[in-house]
Design a protein that fits this description.
alpha/beta, 2,3-Dihydroxybiphenyl 1,2-Dioxygenase, domain 1, about 35% strand, about 20% helix, 8 strands, 2 helices, about 120 residues, four-stranded mixed sheet
Length: about 120
């Protein structure tokens, strides 16, 4: 198995706001596709996208997906707050040696999302 997560779709009701949020927080250039009534902004590496489509509803009670921040978890947390997100679990050391840190936030659309980082 090459990677554990194959595809993740982060639902959005305000597509442009969500694309701006994730672009700013993770310093990404997202490739945007407009397909009639659906829109997608794809994450690099082909793991998923921000999606706007009928029936896609943001929720902080759904599946928890964690994005890897490498050595920039503190920077990502700051950018989340600057871009209208909310930290609901602050940076916390994972109690298994060498596994880094995690945090949980609610994005600008109301989705609960995780962060994973080395420091």
């Amino acid at each position: 198995m090459e990677k554990f997560i194959s595809w993740v779709e982060v639902p959005a009701v305000d597509f442009d706001r969500a694309v701006g949020f994730y672009s700013n927080v993770f310093k990404l250039d997202l490739e945007v596709f407009d397909c009639e009534t659906e829109k997608m902004a794809c994450f690099p590496g082909g793991e998923g996208a921000i999606s706007f489509a009928e029936g896609f509803r943001p929720s902080k009670d759904g599946v928890l997906v964690s994005f890897n921040t490498g050595k920039d978890i503190d920077g990502a947390i700051g950018r989340i707050l600057e871009n209208g997100g909310e930290i609901i679990t602050p940076k916390t050391k994972i109690q298994v040696e060498g596994r880094g840190y995690f945090a949980v936030f609610v994005d600008c659309e109301g989705n609960k999302v995780g962060l994973y980082g080395d420091e």
